[in-house]
Write a structure and sequence with these properties.
The structure holds two protein chains of two kinds. By secondary structure, chain A is an alpha+beta fold. Helix content of chain A is about 35%, strand content about 25%. Chain A contains twelve helices and 14 strands. In chain A, a hairpin with a 2-residue loop joins strand 8 and strand 9. In chain A, the strands form four sheets. Chain A has a five-stranded antiparallel sheet with strand order 4-5-10-6-7. In chain A, strands 11-12-13-14 form a four-stranded antiparallel sheet. By secondary structure, chain B is α+β, with helices and mostly antiparallel strands. In chain B, helix 15 links the parallel strand 20 and strand 21. The chains are: A alpha+beta, B alpha+beta. Chains A and B meet through helix 12 of A and helix 4 and helix 20 of B.
Chain lengths: ~280, ~800
């Protein structure tokens, strides 16, 4: 549990951090809460030459509503997300999700930006952010760009982020009728399977649905067939049961480990899709 | 005359632990806090294969790193550090402190680095390259017993370390005579036989503070001081002296704050011998601190006993006989007490029942895994688990209430001391009282109705009940290779303050508090006036250590005796001062005065001062107030209790949730109920952990798959309901305190109670037994028609 030698620099601004990242020629890593990076460094699975500490960049953390969207700074801790009055009122599923991450120590140090950049296949945020159609705002040398959550997670620990880009924040629309449900892995409290679901309902019918899945595969996915099964249907037990029944169908190469086989995960995708949809429906 | 405030009696009250303010504020001093001028760091290169022949070790690159003092291969270490000694009388293969030719488990050390600091040392470890001729790994203990796929130690045919050793009814104590007639008759007379293979799985002890050693050989003096995160510094001193060709008088062993041991820090480890040996060779102070990844492979594991259990009974629930065939997977080597731990499972096969015939056979087998040794409960949770699960299965088969089947077979309260079929003599007990209290506290009859109602509604709710009896307060000396006594010294200082030394070496048990409570009462002085010293062989003359729930029962008794001697001498000084007879004196509220005439007295401090400046010296007395005692109990103690679990399983996912845990424990007289509850809480956490979430898992190639807390579940508060505790009090006659010990109790009853509750919850699916841990997928498969 002893890392290799590294240098440490504290970035004063986003641009300062971007400049330092660029100058390191790929050797640097950004340090926020450190709850993914430091364990990897201690195991020497990650050996950055420099840590650029972005935890104290002014304005990088905090939650506020602006232009009809809720903006969450990348440096906002899971605990702050879990306990945000604004989120609890306008986007409770996101606060709920944060409250299920790891344990109190992790939630008080880990940040939303760090979790997204690391993109652990069993991380909780990706599933709900896909369901909420969140936008991930990143800044690099070339300026700002915004990436849809469903386009952000690309593979095992792989995200849509250039080497000199930094996640600055996450924007979500206020959305009450959404929920996250997960099967906890009892050691890590990562998700064996986690499903985020969001429903738009008008006149008793589901006008739009988005469902995100984490834990089952290399990275978070949209469950398009579930969304199709929901959209345009009456908001009912029968609709949800039918939609949940097809969750995970067509997914190959599901994760398998000592905690859960691929077959069990396949069944749990259905169970937790139903739970997420039921909970989202209860808020609709 | 100033009157003293009235001092409350402290023994039996909930005094808060005096250790805690320093520990929870980060003000304790642990091994890693020590710094000595010129100290260098030690790090170990460890095998990443489970079984292999070492072809070559290249240390050149490591040696070239700036700040590296020296690099040693196992072969080089073997030139000056002897093979590992063990503490049991069983045959054992040669075990080098650092592997020489063959590695036998993943994590076994193959080379050692000494360097300027911890980071350089680790860099150098990574720069060492080792080539292995990889050999097949033996992982399954039953395959191992057929010599498949290979034999680990040539001279131990079919990987059999020991056995099969028979024990129980008809077996002579030395095993020389085995008469099967009683056990055969029991099974011939049986109307029902319960047979089940049960696995008591391997666990990683996982103390919050990993191990650590600092060794400082001072060549000018020819002495060695060794600081170690150990449960028993005196035993450490004995072995370090022996291994280094030194006298025990030339070695000082110190256990500073120790952040948890759970049995795993009884063992004296290779790292302790290597660091001490290197310090002597290099004549420099050296430090090694285990990291968490190392702790998972290099610190002993616990449990890992497979049992084939057969229980013979009549249809009215009367048990006639019990057979247990035990296979203990002890890993790659024998450590200090490894071989002895499963013999405790044998010893406790009688459990709380008057079983007329028992036959246990024990085989210990080598596999390519981390060696096992003592882990909280050490052999007794396994025995409890096997017997209690079998009793539960019997009750289920007979459609009887498990509480009533157990009650029917209890050793009656008037049968103590009770000689068991296994050769133990249970000191005292009242099992029915503990059962009744637990049933009442749980609301058992209502609980059964609630469960039935929940089941009728489709919920998977189950109830489990477990009795337990354990062997604690270890000695006497016949029960421990190190001797089974404990030592204490009590000194009344010149100012009337008290300094006491105990050979018990507490590391979380709270004895600084409980021992001070005892002395404050015994002398009637303020609690704050008593200091308890421990954990340093340079301060505490003799000792054994803290394990087997013995510190209070044996160490406390020694302290009580030493204090009694000093008190009697102090009374003589007071008698001289007061011109009274010593038998007429009372120690009360910080004063020693004549009974019935409180005005005729002196303060405790005045009498203490007189004892050190005794003018005149009373005839027949030496100056000073200090004395010591060695206490050896006449027998072990046998604490017992009853634990009840209520559990619900999620039908869709198989996830189990523990809803209630009701525990009634009887540890004899309690010095401090608050501390006892804390000990029970900790034990329950680990017992529940074993039942529900903890399991060491190896791959078929011998690779550890649970090598971090990401995969090995450390139980947390979120995993438990609020514990419902209570106790009965059945004092032991084997020590003057009547205290039995409580450190391990929680790990005994909770585990089978939970598994029985899970089986109860899933009984509708035809399941009779479920092996631990209660992995959700395993339960989900049962619900969906598959096998456990």
């Amino acid at each position: 549990m002893i890392p290799t030698h590294f240098d440490y620099a504290r970035a004063t601004s986003l641009d300062d951090a971007i400049a330092r990242l660029g100058a390191s020629a790929g050797g640097a890593k950004l340090l926020a809460g450190g709850h993914s990076l430091i364990p990897l460094m201690k195991l020497r699975l990650s050996e950055p030459t420099t840590l650029i500490d972005i935890a104290r960049i002014p304005g990088l953390s905090g939650i506020m509503e602006k232009d009809g969207k809720i903006q969450i700074g990348a440096g906002t801790t899971h605990h702050a997300v879990a306990t945000s009055a604004l989120l609890t009122e306008k986007c409770p599923a996101l606060a709920d999700t944060a409250a299920t991450i790891g344990d109190p120590q992790v939630r008080n140090r880990g940040t939303i930006g760090g979790s997204l950049a690391h993109a652990d296949p069993a991380a909780d945020y990706p599933a709900i952010l896909v369901a909420l159609d969140a936008e991930i705002h990143v800044k690099g040398k070339g300026g700002w760009r915004s990436v849809k959550a469903s386009d952000f997670f690309q593979g095992l620990f792989t995200v849509n982020l250039q080497p000199d880009e930094i996640i600055a924040g996450v924007h979500v629309k206020p959305q009450k009728a959404a929920a996250y449900a997960k099967l906890h892995q009892r050691a890590s409290h990562f998700a064996i399977v986690g499903v985020g679901a969001s429903l738009e309902v008008s006149g008793g019918k589901i006008s739009a649905a988005r469902v995100g899945l984490t834990g089952a595969s290399t990275h978070a996915l949209r469950l398009a067939n579930v969304e199709t099964a929901l959209t345009g249907q009456a908001l009912s037990d029968a609709t949800i049961d039918a939609a949940a029944a097809v969750a995970g169908d067509g997914l190959d190469d599901l994760n398998a480990d000592i905690h859960a086989s691929a077959n069990y995960r396949r069944q749990m995708i259905k169970v937790f899709t139903k739970r997420a949809l039921d909970a989202a429906r209860a808020r609709a | 005359m100033a009157t003293s405030p009235v001092l409350p009696k402290l023994v039996g009250t909930r005094v808060k632990r005096r250790e805690d303010p320093r520990l929870i504020q980060g003000k304790g001093t642990y091994v890693d806090d020590l710094k000595i001028a010129g100290m260098q760091w030690v790090a170990f290169k460890r095998s990443d294969v489970a079984h292999g022949r070492i072809v070559s070790i290249d240390t050149k690159a490591a040696e070239a790193i700036e700040g590296v003092e020296a690099v040693f291969t196992g072969k080089q270490i073997a030139e000056f550090v002897k093979p590992m000694p063990i503490g049991t009388p069983f045959p054992s293969p040669e075990h080098r402190v650092v592997a020489v030719d063959v590695v036998r488990f993943g994590g076994e050390a193959v080379a050692v680095v000494v360097a300027r600091d911890r980071y350089v040392a680790r860099d150098a470890v990574d720069a060492i390259t080792v080539q292995y001729d990889v050999l097949p790994a033996v992982v399954d203990p039953e395959a191992a017993l057929e010599g498949k796929p290979t034999v680990i130690h040539e001279q131990f045919k079919n990987n059999v370390a020991i056995g099969p050793i028979p024990g129980g009814t008809g077996v002579a104590p030395d095993g020389s005579k085995v008469d099967d007639s009683a056990i055969e008759k029991a099974f011939k007379d049986a109307e029902i036989v319960i047979s089940q293979r049960m696995m008591n799985q391997r666990l990683a002890p996982s103390a919050m503070e990993p191990r650590g050693v600092v060794a400082h050989y001072e060549a000018g003096k020819g002495t060695m001081t060794i600081w170690s995160s150990t449960q028993n510094p005196h035993i450490l001193r004995t072995f370090i002296a022996m291994m280094n060709g030194m006298g025990e008088n030339e070695v000082r062993a110190i256990a500073p704050e120790v952040g948890g041991g759970f049995g795993a820090k009884i063992n004296i480890y290779a790292e302790e011998y290597v660091v001490a040996g290197l310090s002597k060779k290099l004549e420099m102070p050296l430090k090694w601190i285990e990291d968490r990844s190392e702790a998972f492979v290099a610190t002993i594991h616990g449990r890992d006993i497979l049992g084939y259990i057969d229980l013979a009974a009549r249809r009215d629930g009367t048990v006639l006989g019990l057979k247990m065939r035990l296979i203990a997977d002890i890993g790659a080597y024998n450590m200090l007490l490894t071989a002895a731990i499963p013999t405790l499972t044998m010893l406790m096969a009688n459990a709380t029942y008057a079983i007329p015939a028992i036959r246990v056979t024990l085989t210990e087998v080598f596999t390519n895994k981390t060696p096992t040794d003592a882990y909280r409960g050490a052999g007794r949770p396994e025995a409890t688990y096997f017997v209690e699960r079998a009793m539960d299965m019997l009750a289920r088969e007979l459609k009887m209430d498990p509480a009533e089947v157990k009650r029917k077979n209890f050793i009656p309260a008037n049968a103590f001391p009770f000689h068991t079929q296994m050769g133990a003599v249970y000191d005292s007990g009242d099992y029915e009282k503990a059962l009744d209290r637990a049933l009442k506290n749980a609301g058992w009859e209502q609980l059964k109705k609630d469960r039935d109602k929940a089941k009728a509604e489709g919920r998977l709710v189950g109830l489990g009940l477990s009795m337990y009896v354990e062997v604690c307060g270890i000695g006497p000396s016949a029960s421990l290779p190190t001797g089974g006594w404990e030592h204490a010294q009590v000194t009344i200082e010149r100012d009337g303050r008290i300094t006491a030394m105990t050979g018990a070496s507490p590391h979380g048990q709270g004895n600084e508090t409980t021992f001070a409570q005892m002395l404050a009462d015994q002398f009637s002085v303020p609690f704050e006036h008593v200091t308890i010293l421990h954990g340093d062989t340079g301060v505490v003359k003799q000792g054994i250590g803290t394990f087997g729930s013995r510190s209070q029962a044996v160490g406390g008794a020694a302290l009580h005796m030493a204090a009694g001697k000093v008190k009697s001498k102090m009374a003589k000084f007071a008698a001289a001062l007061l011109e009274a007879h010593e038998d007429d004196l009372v120690f009360e509220d910080g004063r020693i005065s004549v009974k019935g005439a409180p005005a005729k007295g002196r303060t405790f401090a005045e009498v203490a001062s007189y004892a050190y400046i005794p003018v005149p010296l009373p005839p027949g007395l030496e100056p000073g107030l200090s004395d010591e005692a060695f206490f050896e109990p006449s027998n072990n103690t046998y604490p017992f209790g009853c634990h009840i679990a209520l559990l619900e399983i999620d039908r869709d996912t198989g996830e189990p949730t523990l809803l209630r845990l009701v525990a009634v424990d009887d540890a004899g007289n309690l010095i401090n109920p608050l501390i006892v509850e804390g000990q029970i809480h900790g034990g329950l956490a680990q017992g529940i952990g074993q039942a529900m979430i903890e399991e060491v898992v190896y791959g078929e190639d011998g690779q550890l798959l649970t090598g971090s807390f990401m995969d090995y579940a450390m139980p947390r508060a979120i995993d438990f309901p609020r514990f419902e505790l209570d106790n009965t009090v059945t004092p032991t006659p084997v020590n003057p305190l009547g205290a039995k010990g409580c450190g391990e109790a929680g790990t005994l009853g909770s585990t089978p109670a939970i598994v029985s509750a899970a089986v109860d919850a899933l009984s509708g699916f035809g399941v009779k037994h479920i092996d631990m841990m209660l992995r959700p997928e395993k339960l989900w498969r049962i619900i969906n028609g598959g096998q456990a």
